[in-house]
Amino acid sequence: MKIRRIQDAILPTPWGDFVIIGFEEKINNKNHIALTYGDISQKKPILVRIHSECLTGDALFSLRCDCGAQLKQALIKISKEGSGILIYHRQEGRNIGLLNKIRAYHLQDQGLDTVEANHKLGFSADERDFTICSDILKSMNINNIKLLTNNPLKMKILVNSGINIVERVDLITKKHSNNEKYLVTKIKKMGHLIPK
After folding, report:
1. Catalytic: which of 49, 58, 113, 128?
2. Is 135 part of the annotated catalytic residue set?
3. Are strands 3-13 and 16-25 parallel, antiparallel or unpaired?
4. In this structure, how many other beta carbons lie within 10 angstroms of the beta carbon of residue 194?
5. Would strands 16-25 and 31-37 be described as parallel, antiparallel, or unpaired?
6. CB atoms within 10 A of CB 109
7. What is the rounded (10 degree) CA torsion for 157, 172, 12, 78?
8. For this structure, is 128 an active site residue?
9. pTM value?
10. Phi, psi of 47 (to 5 degrees)
11. β-sheet bridge partners, residue 147
C-alpha cells in the first residue's frame, strides 16, 4: 500500500459525530483524511464519497464551482444513511495546486472554461489520481461500495484499483448563474453525469 494510517479522533459536526482518520502517502508524505460515520464494518456495501480538496469552494464559499455544496450534501447523505465514509482527497484544483488554480480562475475571468484554462497552463483537464483513495478504502477493509459521484473517470479508476462499485449515487447540487458554465463544461468536456 502507498499509504500509512496515522491517527484518528472524534470530529463533531452539525450532522453528527464522525471519526476523522489521518493518512499519509509513503512516497511524499502528502496527507489525506477519511471521515467515517456509524458502523462501517457492515456486510452490506458502504456509502462512500471521495471529495477532492477545494479550498475556495469548501472553506471560502466560492460559488464558481459546486464543491462546497457537494461536500455538505455528502456529509448529510452519509449521516442520513446511518453509516458511510467521506475521503477528503487532497489534490487541490484537480491536482494542479492552489496557485495554478488561481491562475486558471484568472483565465476563466477572461472567457476560458475550466478545461481550456487547465490546457492553457499546460495541464490535462484532470490531473487527479484516485488510486490512493482505493488504498485508503482497502486499509479500512472496504471493498464493496455505493459511490456518491457524478464522475465516471473516478469510478473507472477505483474499479481498476480493485474496488467493487455496486451502485453509483447521484450528487446533484443547485445550478445558478455563477456555476452554470462550470457545470456545463463538466458535462460536455469531462463526461460528468449531471442532469441538464
Report:
1. 128
2. no
3. antiparallel
4. 18
5. antiparallel
6. 10
7. -70
8. yes
9. 0.91
10. -75, 125
11. 48, 168
CA–CA dist 78, 84 (Å, integer): 5
Sheet holding 46-52, edge to edge: 3-13, 16-25, 31-37, 84-89, 46-52, 144-148, 164-169
C-alpha cell at 65: 464551482
pLDDT in tens, 152-171: 888 888 999 999 999 999 88
Q: What is the rounded average pLDDT of the residues 24-51?
A: 93
Write out pLDDT tens, residues 51-102. 999 999 999 999 988 889 999 999 999 999 999 999 999 988 888 999 999 9
Catalytic residue among 58, 66, 126, 135, which? 126
Q: Three-state DSSP class for 11? A: strand
With 70 as the cut, is the pLDDT of residue 191 above it?
no
